[in-house]
Amino acid sequence: MTRLNYDALSNALARLEEGFAEADQYPQLLTVRDGVMQRFEIAMDLSWKLMHRTLKETYQLDEGVILSKKDIFRQAAKFRLLDDPETWFGHYEARNKTSHIYDNTEASRTFERARIFLEDAKIALERMLHAT
Description:
Blueprint: H1 7-25, H2 30-57, H3 69-78, H4 85-97, H5 104-131
Helix pairs in contact: 1-2, 1-5, 2-3, 2-4, 2-5, 3-4, 4-5
């Protein structure tokens, strides 16, 4: 069995956290906010992909059990990699909106959702690291 590498996710979460620090320092710069949302998109994608691999390689789950992103989040919760799959459904929905945001209100909502995601993803990463 190959050892899973969580460095890319760890780095993506660190970049997201840095983005929030910059956004807090320069809240008037929409380009910084937009950069944070791009980093959120990357970190979210890495999160679900690593959850999927962790479920398959560490918990030996068959592909037939993990057919969708929602299945990944449900199974990850079952194995205590995350607390609430519904929260992650919301994170993923917000991630999917990132390429279709055309108004400031929706961008602000997604930005705030990304803050919540960051904390949840740090917890999930820690749990995935301890599971392997």
